[in-house]
Amino acid sequence: MEALQLLTPRAGLRVLITGGASGIGLAIAKAFVSTGARVHVCDIDGKAVDALASALPAVTGTRANVAEAADVARVFDDVERELGGLDVLINNAGIAGPTGGIDEIDPADWEKTVDVNLNSHFQFARRAVPLLRQAPDGGVMVFMSSVAGRLGYGFRTPYSATKWALVGLAKSLAIELGPDNIRVNAVQPGIVKGPRMEGVIAARAKQLGLSYEEMEARYLEKISLRRMVTQEEIAASVLFLSSPAGSAISGQALSVCRNVETL
Ligand code: NAD
Which residues cross the membrane (predicted)? Predict the structure, then answer.
């Protein structure tokens, strides 16, 4: 196959994206649709799910809280009905979690972050595997980790701990599922331009008594290329991992961050 063909995922791939109705998940959904994929998204924001499904005919959706086991079961009922199987699972849903010192963090906020960012990914992976084993070209699973899953991130301990855990989950599942022709990788976005990052910068600025602009400049200084990454660039890395060009890649954590060396 030509290099260009290798870089394009096969048309008709059946893709499930968690937290897929906005942000990075939405960018991934649009990218897959542009390659002729059929995409099912789940998201806690039912209005955003409905808006996406009416805007893009190749997308179906389920309103679901990924941290609720009953909702996860409903998502897979819908996936089997809408897609009739699964080739690619993108475990993308995640929340920022609380900002604060370890002695200030409310245990309920810690638990919620672990439920959404880690436990849900286990729930989706365990239900997806029987379907991915049937994928004609082999199954693909991607976990959305973070630069905070390869560097320490003071005052964001629940977030960082869950994002490191996803790398362990991806690398271990890659070993476990390789013989079933299922590839498993993690993607580690850096500082991504968009509303979520704006919220993170604002929370940290407030904590340190700085203006938003001062805090944003401090974040940019941590990036060698002095620019944030875009949602589309993260989506492109996910397409690459799901394409034939990615067929030799499993058990890896891929940084897409313009070289962030410290947080
Ligand atoms: P976002 O907050 O913009 O979007 C997340 C989506 O997930 C939203 O549509 C939201 O409704 C949904 N969601 C949240 N909680 C949910 C739940 N319990 N059940 C179902 N859906 C839920 O976030 P984003 O920036 O698009 O981030 C996507 C992923 O990328 C996350 O895992 C995040 O940790 C990771 N990430 C983001 C950045 C960044 O700078 N934005 C950097 C590194 C990693």
Answer: none
Which pTM value belongs to this model? 0.96
Nearest to 91 by CA among 51, 128, 47: 128
Closest ligand 1 atom, residue 24 Cα: 26
DSSP one-letter string for 10-72: PTT-EEEEET-SSHHHHHHHHHHHHTT-EEEEEES-HHHHHHHHHH-TTEEEEE--TT-HHHH
Domains of the chain: 3-190+230-256 (3.40.50.720), 193-228 (no CATH)
Helix (H, G, I), strand (E, B) or coil at 106: coil
Reference 199, options 187, 190, 191, 188; nearest CA is: 191
Does the C-beta of 169 come closer than 6 Å to ligand 1? no
Whether residue 146 has its Cβ less than 6 Å from ligand 1: yes
